[in-house]
Design a protein that fits this description.
By secondary structure, this protein is an alpha+beta fold. The protein has helices at residues 15-18, 55-74, 106-116, 158-168, 179-185, 205-218; strands at residues 22-26, 36-43, 46-53, 87-95, 126-135, 141-148, 193-194, 197-198. Helix 2 (55-74) packs across helix 3 (106-116).
């Protein structure tokens, strides 16, 4: 039908698709201090330090990636990875002793999950959150809960995003695949959008004609 424009995904966000979780349990992985090692090499006649992943880290990544792949299938996680979708990674640590820095253990875990390419394509979309720290010398581990974030781009949640998009339907820019809207939905701050309103909003010609016709009829 002429004049009708259907919003492409992800302009309307499906709440049922967003509200899913993946639960994982990891052994305590190698810390960032044991992730990389260095060796000296000669380059152009000069000594250089070259980094490489330790055998401990390589084995962990392979082992944990295989486990994640199994859990994705078992738990029915069927989201298609999206480079713009962010995720909460909530972690509960069970260390075998005190005075261990939990921030040192995310790197290799997230890299292993990235290796699967089943949840995200790159871990630059993760929001790591430490929920609790316990001490369990008999069964040290890290329990992870992964789920899509509540926010959508610059909007607090999908409801706010959809409300903004519904207003965009009446804008002349929308039918031209508005760059302001695209950037807002991936989290880019723009001076044209302030307190939930777009200063570049321009009514479509058809809507203006309808409104003008109503005004003339009322007169």
């Amino acid at each position: 039908m002429r004049g009708v424009f259907i919003a492409p995904l992800p302009y309307y966000i499906d709440k049922l698709v967003r509200n899913i979780e993946l639960h994982l349990t990891s052994e305590i992985p190698p810390s960032v201090n044991h992730y990389l090692a260095y060796r000296g090499v000669m380059k152009n006649g000069r000594p250089r330090a070259m980094s490489y992943k330790t055998q401990e880290a390589v084995q962990y990544r392979r082992r944990f990636a295989e486990y994640v792949t199994e859990q994705v299938a078992e738990q029915g996680w069927d989201r298609v990875p999206d480079k713009d979708q962010h995720f909460y990674v909530d972690a509960v640590f069970y260390f075998d002793k005190r005075r261990m820095d939990c921030n040192n253990y995310f790197k290799v875990m997230l890299d292993a999950i990235t290796d699967t390419q089943l949840i995200w394509l790159d871990d630059d979309v993760t929001c790591e959150r430490v929920q609790r720290i316990y001490y369990d010398s008999e069964n040290p581990r890290i329990e992870l809960t992964i789920r899509p974030v509540d926010y959508v781009g610059i909007f607090d949640d999908e409801s706010q995003a959809n409300e903004f998009v519904s207003v965009c339907f009446g804008c002349a820019r929308y039918q031209r695949n508005c760059s302001l809207l695209r950037k807002a939905l991936i989290g880019k701050i723009q001076r044209e959008i302030y307190e939930g309103e777009c200063t570049k909003y321009t009514k479509k010609k058809e809507i203006r004609e309808i409104n003008n016709g109503k005004e003339e009829h009322e007169d």
